[in-house]
Amino acid sequence: MAKPVLEVKNLIKTYGRVIALDGADLELYPGEVLAIVGDNGAGKSTLIKCITGAEKADSGKIIIDGAEVSFNKVQESRLAGIETVYQSLAVAPSLDVTANIFLGREIRRGGLFGQLSRMMDSSLMKKDAQKYISSLGIETIQNINQAVETLSGGQRQAVAVARAVAFSQKIIILDEPTASLGVRESSQVLNLIKNLQSRGLPVIIISHNMPQVFEVANRIQIQRLGKRAGIVTPKTHDMKDVVAVMTGALKLELKDQTLNSVT
Amino acid sequence: MSKKSLKSKQSDHTEFSSSVSRIQIIQSYLHRYPWLSSAGVLILAILSFSFFNSNFLTPGNLSLILQQVSIIGALALGQTIIILTGGIDLSCAAISVCCMMIMAKSGMGDPYIENDGLAIWLAFPLGIFIAALAGAFNGFLVTKFRLPPFIVTLGTLNIFIAITILYGSGRSILENEIDPFLLELSNIFKIGEFVVTYGVILMLLMYAFFAYSLRFTSWGRHVYAVGNDPEAARLSGISVDKVLMSAYLVAGLIFGLTSWIMIGRIMVASPNVPSDYNLVAITAVVIGGTSLFGGRGTVFGTLIGACIVGVFQNGLTLAGVDLNFQVLAIGILIIFAVTLDTWVRRVKV
Ligand SMILES: Nc1ncnc2c1ncn2[C@@H]1O[C@H](COP(=O)(O)OP(=O)(O)OP(=O)(O)O)[C@@H](O)[C@H]1O
Ligand SMILES: [Mg+2]
């Protein structure tokens, strides 16, 4: 197999006495869709936050394209081409759709005028935002001048996904991107993920929805109690197996991926 | 689904409950333009005061109101920026008074020695610098120690007051002891029958500048984003602490310039300038439709809010109403404004 784009080794993260990550590992290969599944509190969100620099791990290594990195804030991972839809969506409710899509990377007007006035190029951003939203195929957002707080939960999620898709260069990470989407919108997002894959962009998707995971993922990483309990593929294992490992009913042998009962 | 069927459904709906949807329309308009209700209150107030008193709506009186508004208005501008980030600054007036004393006293030096003080081109920037420093100190405590702005500025309010009194030895500096440059903003010019001070002009210029910055620059957008939800702003790649720090620093600068307007208006530098200016400034912000929860509001609304406060104080004084009733009226306005804000924020379009 090719070299991984992203490698995480033995990540440990504690919040006071809570151990969120207890030696977590992860490998993401070029062009693949990697799903991460696990119970609530298994450390999935914490893991991706440590990758993007939203949180600082206590110890462990993060390696991108063979070089160790240490992102201290989200801006740095963004610059490295990693885009993320966080579980909390990270949108500013009173700002409109355009402002949210360009949040933290507003485009300034060009030329001397732009330099002196520091004026944003609103019409350009509006045009691009419209493009991103419609390329997502989610038509329910009619007006991109609408404040995000006036959107439904699913529409908000669409905004966050559109933002990540538009700007990702290297890796895209989606933390439960379909959690509040309807059936139609969910399948749109799943199609989007397949599109990203055909563009050659590796995707990490966190989800509790097993059928969705089995539909899009090349590999499924099962997270349990802050570490990796195993990796399976949709071809070799079924949902029952995954749930069994997730809950600790069965144990996955790392070397040959056979399932054994816990002794 | 066709758009047509959706539309006809909507119109059916409006026929059945037109009164409900009309309220919803008002709500969503107020949601989009939070200053609308304040503008309504201002017009209503002006109309009723002029109805009861023929002296109210004269150019002379309106000019006076504008001059009275210049101090509160300038303070409320800085206050708006801080409240937009989700904070509050109880120390705003104390910073201004401190800056005023530093400019006046360092420029004067020992009153019994001729030409003892600093040259005005040193004394003035020194005062403004100290004001910016005071703002930055608030910002430092808020960002580095994660303390609530209310508590931080309650503390620094007292610190700044104490410093001012200690520095000024509790003594007022009179008009003839103050460098003429510091009194410059009391100069007037006339537009028809209206008398405008340069202090009013400075206030309006500051409003124009910050209305622009908040609306058209990425800094302004980040101020709103941080006030909305600091964690979301952080995850969106905004340096929250830098934005907060800049807001408190800029506010300090505004409070510094406010002190210049203040001296020009009261023609004396005194450590015991009304200490309730900070609350009046917050009042103006809230009445102007800016949400105390942060992330929502405009400086234009604040300007209207400051005018409302000015019109109420002036109008009730003209009507010979007991001062306590003025306080009562302002109190009712605050409750009204906050109730409206809470209602408007529940909007779902
Ligand atoms: N900011 C925080 N402060 C304290 N504890 C936290 C914090 N963030 C996460 N935790 C704890 O870390 C553990 C892992 O949380 P995490 O959000 O990573 O779980 P998750 O796998 O994403 O769960 P879910 O499926 O519910 O999203 C939990 O026990 C949680 O309580
Ligand atoms: Mg999670």
Protein architecture, described:
The complex is a heterodimer of chains A (263) and B (349). With 263 residues, chain A is of the alpha/beta class. Chain A is built from nine helices and twelve strands. Chain A has a domain of 177 residues: Rossmann fold, CATH 3.40.50.300. In chain A, the strands form three sheets. In chain A, strands 6-7-8-3-9-10 form a six-stranded mixed beta sheet, sandwiched between helices. A four-stranded antiparallel beta sheet of chain A has the order 2-1-4-5, covered by helices on one side. The mean pLDDT of chain A is 92. Chain B is an all-alpha fold. Chain B has a domain of 244 residues. In chain B, 71% of the residues lie in helices and 2% in strands. Chain B is built from 14 helices and two strands, in the order H-H-H-H-H-H-H-E-E-H-H-H-H-H-H-H. In chain B, helix 4 packs across helix 12. The longest helix of chain B has 27 residues. Chains A and B meet through helix 2 of A and helix 2, helix 9 and helix 10 of B.
